[in-house]
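Please describe our next protein:
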Amino acid sequence: MTHNLYIFLTLLLSLNLTAQVSDFASVDFTKANNIAKIHEGAKLDNLPLLAYQLTSKLSTDVEKFRAIYTWVSKNIKGDNAQHNMVSKNRKKFKNDSIAFSKWNKQYLKVVFKKLRKYKKTMCTGYAYLIQELCYLANIECVIVDGYGRSVDANTNSLDMVNHSWNAVKLNNKWYLCDATWSSGYTDEYNCFITDYNDGYFLTDPVLFGKSHYPAKKKWLLTDKIITSSFTKAPLIYGETYKHNIDPIAPKNRDVTLRKGEEITFSLKATDSDLNKTVSLVHYIGFKEKKFDISNITNNNGIISFNHKFKHKGNYDAHLKINDDIVATYTVKVIKD
């Protein structure tokens, strides 16, 4: 690919990303957010009442969906025990999808009981609750099953689905969101920490597709993602979505270079000042070491810089914005 063609394609990608993100830029979600907060702690034993409380005073579907999504993300806790149980049986029935489906159908009864009684669940419960509240608010919404890539679930192949999220129709257009990953995370002590991440709300399909791949391709909502690019792409994080960053280059997580060869890292960012805080690091034990970077540029929101790996070896290279890691690459440096 020529340099000019590469720049053209990345600029085209960035224009599409911006257009998606700005669809509701003029909407003030303050009222919807406040309504969700007012009803913090509400029970799940009467979903029609909860849907009415969250949406009746809002005039547009996107505001209603915002209230529903924010409430679910901030009031439902992730249950790692359920997640581990499903993961264990997914591996157990790896070669027998019918047996897994039968087991999973039975286990869903436990999932929904825990959700209603304790407001604890896994991804299926989050997606189910979003869908049910949307149905009661007369908003078209579906559950999307597929593959989620994270540090804990780095999907190298698409064997069996491991994640669920939602697609919602607003103003006759479909959008993607993930309340599970918006809600928080499990810490090193296996405790769930509520930490709302707005980056998974109505996310641009291209960015969303960096960590989500649906079992039914129509829910990609874009033709710019193929299976191989999903499984080979760099790992990205919740902070990537918080900053609304789309890593562009290198395209693959695993990179092989010759010693002394220069490589270009590029990312798309909506914040034009992020180039001032970009860095490339690796870790020796718990100690962070910065790589020397050069030729930092910001061309219409596409931030690029170069680095030369001077020594042979294997490196986990982490792209950082401020103090947040937003992408990870595995770099193998061979003899020149």
In short: DSSP finds eleven helices and 18 strands in the chain.
